[in-house]
Amino acid sequence: MVLLAFAWEWTLEVAGSDRSVAFLVLVFVAGSADCSTTVTFFPIAESYSALHLTALSVGESLTGAVAALLGALQTAGLEEGAARFSPSAFFVLLAAVMALSCLGLLLLYLRPAPAAASSSSSFSASSSASSSSSLTPSRSA
Question: Is 12 helix (H, G, I), strand (E, B) or coil?
Answer without folding.
Answer: strand
